[in-house]
Amino acid sequence: QVQLVESGGGLVQAGGSLRLSCAASGRTFSSDAMGWFRQPPGKDREFVAVITWTGGSTYYTDSVKGRFTISRDNAKKTVYLQMNSLQPEDTGVYYCARRRPDSRGTAKDQYDYWGQGTQVTVSS
Hints:
By secondary structure, this protein is mainly beta. The chain has no helices and eleven strands. It has strands spanning 2-7, 10-13, 18-26, 34-39, 46-51, 58-60, 68-73, 78-83, 92-99, 111-114, 118-123. The radius of gyration is 13 Å and the shape is globular.
């Protein structure tokens, strides 16, 4: 069993920044790839970013490239999402998740453990 807890969400103005954290516990390993997803109001949950266990391989959805940075601190068992230049379309509930060990994609059905989510609201 893996437990993930997100924190760091809040209300910011357009152009502002937030840093989300996801603390992992339970049967976790540094080899686990970890991802961030978000669910805008009235829309499906969508992929945002993923980082491999090495921390040297990352992938982002096109809409956040150049603005968001995913990272991890294995000693603290925590994954982060630094979000800069936030825009209203970034508003939503943000979730961290572990990718299945036998998966390699970005689709949400390839992730098996999820946090409770943290709300991010960007005002215009």
